[in-house]
């Protein structure tokens, strides 16, 4: 009887240890963990479950077996990989958003630059239009002035050619004086030559001689300087005194003379404003 009791006591102690461990793990006094919803995690999945029971020896020494360790770490490793993928996707989305934002900013800046350039071009065109209008106004005013003074010729230059009694041909000195006057109107507009011949003597003879002397001057202007005939006005004054002689009341010299006057109007001014 004593031997049976000694054997039964150790056996009962060994059997009581698992029961005590199970009772401790399932103690109702400790509050149970509330399972988290799928929205409480970054991946949207349910949280990792508690490890399954591995028996008494599994709880006493869970690292004793490789399969147990592998089963416990695989869910953790999977979640870590999922978090890495989620982080990579978020980073890519951020980069894409930033790239689109930068492209939009650059496009807006380019549009603003184009608008500024268009405004600058419009301002330049407006300035050019204003200058053109001002030039047109000035030209119109000039034309009005010229038209109003088209028949008003003003004396610009005057010279006198002397002839000996009975002479009607030009001397070299007379030709030089005519050349000096004619060269000043080359290529110009709005001018005329007034040629007046004066001769000593009386009556029709004086008029004829003065006409011949004036014609020699006109002939030289037309042939040697290509002055159009319509720009030359010739008149034989005979023995009539000139305006200067009448004012001074001086004695007229013998022989003859020709007075050449260059007159201009404002047509040259109009040509210079083109």
Describe it.
It is a single chain. This protein has 274 residues and is α+β, with helices and mostly antiparallel strands. The protein folds into two domains: 63-149; 153-272, OmpA-like domain (60s Ribosomal Protein L30, Chain: A), CATH 3.30.1330. It is 58% helix and 12% strand. The protein is built from seven helices and four strands. The protein has helices at residues 2-25, 55-60, 66-148, 172-182, 203-225, 243-248, 267-272; strands spanning 154-163, 191-199, 232-236, 256-264. A four-stranded mixed β-sheet has the order 1-4-2-3. Strand 2, helix 5 and strand 3 (232-236) form a beta-alpha-beta unit. Helix 4 (172-182) packs across helix 5. The longest helix has 83 residues, at 66-148. It is rod-shaped. Mean pLDDT is 77; it is low at 21-38.
Task: Sum up the structure in keywords.
274 residues; alpha+beta; 60s Ribosomal Protein L30, Chain: A; 4-stranded mixed beta sheet; 4 strands
CATH homology superfamily of the largest domain: OmpA-like domain
β content, as a range?
5-15%
Which radius of gyration do the C-alpha atoms yield? 64 Å
Secondary-structure class: alpha+beta
Element string (H = helix, E = strand): HHHEHEHEHEH
Summed up, the domain count is 2
Distance between the termini: 150 Å
The largest sheet has its strands arranged as 1-4-2-3
Which descriptor suits the 3D outline? rod-shaped
Helix content: 55-70%
Largest sheet, strands/sense/barrel? 4 strands, mixed
